[in-house]
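Document type: protein sequence-to-structure record

Subject area: structural biology

Format: plain text, a pair of labelled lines:
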Amino acid sequence: MRMLRCSLRLTRRERVRSEYIRGKLRVPRLQDKLREGRLIWYGHVQRRDEEYVGRRVEGMEIGRRQGRPKRRLYDSYHENMREVGVTQEDAQDRISWRQKIRTGNRKFRELELRCCSTMLRILSLVSDCYLVLS
């Protein structure tokens, strides 16, 4: 966040909210990127065959200690899938899985495409004007 503030020439003393800074620079939240990375890996492991080490480790039961149970990676996968709205069966189709779990970047990609098409139109207008003037 410090780097983003610095790029906008803002200091903490100015008390500008982080959401505003991320929106201004079109940077997604770190939590969204981490969730996306976990779900990409989960989909990769689910598409592998049953003999794959990752799939075998996923099904292992580990002895429980006294007290509160430790948070397992499997639990965070299912929590992330619930947040995004996908199921375990969706992971079999790689293309649709990627589209469904990349919720944070979709808006930025659409905005980028619109900006690129606008820039192309401007460049074509400038080149047309240049041809007319010469």
